[in-house]
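Can't paste images in this forum, so I'm doing it all in text. The chain is below; anyone willing to post the predicted C-alpha cells underneath?
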Amino acid sequence: MTPEEKCKMAVGAVKIEADAYMVCLTHALSTEREEVMGLLIGEVEDERVAHIYSVIMLQRLDKRKDRVEISPEQLSDASTQAERLGMLTSKQRPMRVIGWYHSHPHITVWPSHVDLRTQASYQFMDAGFVGLIFSCFNTDTNLGGHLKVYCFQSVNIKPEGSPPQPCNIYVLIFITKCSVFSYCIRYQRADIELQIVHTEVLSKATLNSLSELPQILSKEEEEAYSKTLNSKDLLTAVHNSTVFTKALCQLMEVMCGPLLQTLENRLQVNLKRTAALETEKEMLEKEINSVKAELQGSM
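Text version of the structure:
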C-alpha cells in the first residue's frame, strides 16, 4: 500500500491496554484445536488512533480448526455490553465496538481470504473497524514456541475503487465468519501499527472478562453434550457422558486452576505493594512532623 492510500484510511494506528491484551492472549490460548473470537471495545481518538480498553469474549456456535461461528444474538447485544464495560475501564465512560479478534492455532498470522472478506463487511458499516489475529501454538526448531499478533484492515483493490458491496445482506447484518460470503471484488490486507499501552492495574472490565472465560468454555461443552442426550444407545450415552466429564476436568486443569492461581498471585503482589506504600507513608508523616517541630522550635 502506498503512503497516499494509507493516509486515506480511517485508522492509522491502534493502541491496546496491556490488561485487555492479556485477556485476548488468554482467550486465544484457551483452546489449541479450534479458533476463538471476540470483540474489541474502545474509542477512536484524534489523529486516527483507535484505542482498545476492553474485550468481549463470544461463545462459539461452531468450533472448527479453520473457522468460528457465533450467534446473531451475541452481536446484537454487544453494543449494550460495550457501554457497560466502558464504565468499568479507567476512562469510566460508555464505549463502543471498534474491532474484532480471533485466533489462528497452528496457522500463520496472515489473514485468509475469508478473514479479509469478514473484515471488509465490518468496514462497510464502520470504516474505523480493525481486526486482530493471534497466531499461537506454533513451534520452531530454533526459537521454540512463539506467538504472533497482527493488526489489519481490508482494502478494496478493484480498479474503479468502488466501496465494498456484499451480495448477501443477511451475511452483512449478522457478520458470521463462514464460507457463504460472496463478493465480486477482491481485497488485500493493510498493515496497522499496534501499540501496547502499559497499565499499572487490572481494570474491573478485565477482571469481569477473565472470570467469564471459564463459564463460556463450560457452556460450550454443556450445549455440545446436550445435543447428544437424545441417543437411546446405552454405550453411546456412557461414552458421551465420559467425553463431557473429561472436557470439564481438562477445563479445570488447564484454565480454571492457572487462572485462579494467577489472580491470587496478583492479589499477593498488590497486598505487598499496599503494605510498602503504607510504610512509606508513615515514614513521610514522621519526617513532616519532625520538620514542623523544628520550625516551631526555631520561632
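The longest helix spans residues 234-298. The chain has two domains: 3-201, 228-297.
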